[in-house]
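User: Here's a structure from my thesis project, written as structure tokens. My advisor, Dr. K., wants to see whether a designed sequence matches the one we expressed. Can you design one independently, without my sequence as a hint?
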């Protein structure tokens, strides 16, 4: 069975190496689908904080000879993501690995449970870290597709529980990344705050509620023990133990 992973990439230096590291031993190839412009349908007035050369070096250091780097200019996010079918047409399993999502061992256990025989994809919830590694939104039941079975004989999807959740660090980044992300976000039409409003809120060190830029229901950042919600190797990340990531 051939298992590959892909990352639809435009920016993501803070966590890219850790995202790749979290799955690299489980895959035979790691594909980066890189665009030097946003593909979510929204142009940004801000400068992207990362260059292709910087991101390529990080990906190479993390993935080594498993890295497959593809550059194109996609007009829509789904075009960028769906292009993996052209680059890995023989894959039996495809892991969707965003640059700010680190897979936990509990998530990877899904690969050994034979789901490819009866479903087209698995949706997986996220633990959203906020401001540091000791606070996170851990009750969001929304589940994006993260394991695909392109050769599955039957359609349909399968969800899983929060105990399988992926660690998501999209709201635990320097403010230049938060501002840029929200300025060209795929859910820009749903955002409850402007990029500058969200950054101002993020910089308020006493605010831990109403912090998700889109969702209302699961927006409380709770105090947690970091290693209960992320892989142990995240202790090596420079933000581990940092009081505020700004």
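Assistant: Designed independently from the structure alone:
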């Amino acid at each position: 069975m051939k298992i590959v992973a892909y990352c639809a990439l435009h920016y993501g230096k803070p966590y890219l190496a850790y995202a790749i590291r979290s799955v690299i031993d489980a895959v035979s190839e790691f594909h980066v689908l890189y665009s030097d412009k946003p593909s979510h349908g929204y142009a940004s007035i801000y400068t992207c904080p990362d260059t292709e050369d910087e991101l390529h070096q990080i990906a190479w250091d993390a993935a080594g000879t498993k890295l497959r780097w593809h550059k194109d200019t996609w007009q829509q996010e789904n075009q960028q993501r769906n292009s993996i079918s052209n680059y890995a047409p023989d894959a039996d399993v495809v892991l969707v690995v965003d640059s700010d999502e680190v897979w936990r061992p509990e998530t990877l256990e899904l690969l050994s449970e034979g789901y490819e025989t009866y479903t087209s994809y698995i949706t997986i919830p996220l633990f959203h870290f906020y401001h540091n590694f000791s606070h996170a939104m851990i009750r969001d039941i929304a589940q994006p597709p993260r394991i695909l079975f392109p050769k599955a004989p039957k359609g349909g999807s399968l969800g899983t529980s929060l105990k399988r959740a992926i660690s998501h660090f999209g709201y635990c980044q320097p403010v230049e990344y938060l501002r840029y992300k929200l300025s060209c976000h795929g859910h820009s039409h749903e955002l409850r705050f402007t990029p500058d409003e969200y950054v101002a809120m993020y910089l308020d060190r006493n605010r831990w509620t109403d912090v998700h830029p889109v969702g209302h229901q699961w927006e409380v950042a709770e105090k947690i023990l970091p290693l209960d919600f992320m892989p142990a190797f995240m202790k090596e990340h420079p933000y581990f133990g940092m009081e505020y990531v700004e």
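When you compare it with your expressed construct, this may help: The mean pLDDT is 93.
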